[in-house]
Amino acid sequence: MNLDEKRKDSSVKQKKGLHFILASVVLWSAVLAVHLTGLPILTKNLLTFFITAPLMPLAYLIAKVIRVDFSNKSNPLTSLGVLFSANQMLYLLIAMWVYPTVPEKMVMVLAMIFGAHLLPYGWLYQSKSYYFFSVLIPILILFLGIRFPPYMVAGSMLVIEILFSLSLAYEVRGLSRIQDERGI
After folding, report:
1. Into how many domains does the chain fold?
2. Element (H or E) spanning 111, and its range?
3. Contact predicate 25/158, CB 8 Å
4. What pLDDT, on a 0 to 100 scale, did the predictor assign at position 23?
5. What CA–CA distance (Å, rounded) separates 72 from 66?
6. How far apart are CA 62 and CA 91, in angstroms?
7. Average pLDDT for 100-123
8. pTM over 0.85
9. Phi and psi (nearest 5°) for 97?
10. What DSSP designation does 61 have?
């Protein structure tokens, strides 16, 4: 298999990572709920960090429901996708610094990190959706986060993630149609 075939294989078997984006819809819903409470901002931020922790198990469960090959061990590009995600962990140190320093901006920074980390998946999954949302999210969230409170940022991320999920589902459906036409 050449590189493009491996990328296509990854896109098909992992449905372009749709399970992770659907999991993020659930997590951003929870972040929004926390930031709508009357809790102190540092408590909200701490809970926000806790909320992000179950991303992998939640994505795994969603993968089972939508029939995604979660590990796709036969494709070496899966390891590259894991590396793309692991890279985001290093950037979370920035959000940890923001947490006590400028607490009202932590959700904004977290959302920008999340959005920016999507860029290499545009290449991996040959996805216009990933390219588009990886640029849109950091820029839009910076604009919103400077002007509005964290719950507005979380609500905006929830809407964006729903739109992103729909866009990816459309791309995945297109892949399925191509496979059906080719008899794959």
Report:
1. 1
2. helix 106-116
3. yes
4. 98
5. 15
6. 26
7. 97
8. yes
9. -70, -40
10. H
- The pLDDT of 107-123, averaged and rounded, is 96
**Cβ distance 167 to 17 under 8 Å?**
no
Q: For residue 136, give the nearest of 155, 158, 164 by alpha carbon.
A: 164
HSE-CB at 3 with a 13 A cutoff on CA atoms is 4
State how far the Cα of 156 lies from the Cα of 158, in Å rounded to an integer: 5
Range of the domain at 91: 3-182
Sequence-distant (≥ 6) Cβ neighbours of residue 7 within 8 angstroms: 77, 123, 124, 125, 126
What pLDDT, in 10s, does the model give residues 41-88? 999 999 999 999 999 999 999 999 999 998 888 899 988 888 888 888
Task: Please answer whether residues 88 and 114 qualify as being in contact, where contact means their C-beta atoms are separated by less than 8 angstroms.
Answer: yes
Q: Tokens standing for 68?
A: 């995604």
Q: How far apart are CA 134 and CA 94, in angstroms?
A: 18
In the numeric block, the tokens 């140190």 are attached to 93
What are the structure tokens assigned to 105, written together?
């901006």
